[in-house]
Amino acid sequence: MTNQRNGTLYIGVTSRLIERVQEHKTRIHPQSFTSKYGCTMLVYYNVFSSIEEAIAEEKRIKAGSRSKKLKLIEQINPEWKDLWNEIKEW
Question: Which of 31, 66, 68, 89 is most buried as measured by Cβ atoms within 10 A of its Cβ?
């Protein structure tokens, strides 16, 4: 999640992507990091067959540099489009 192109980045893991993104977008938790920084745009996501794989990938991404995170986003979403419309109909 981000607030704008090359802006603040939030990386998380969930087993309920649609609901979680909607929570970020509506700022249901006003004291959360995403609410504080206005991270309401989904610019990257990945789907895994197990929560363990997802958590391992989350840790790998978080441990990487900012430039690696930006490169990861731009590989699949070079225009930094909000991918919400892509997933909300699942």
Answer: 68
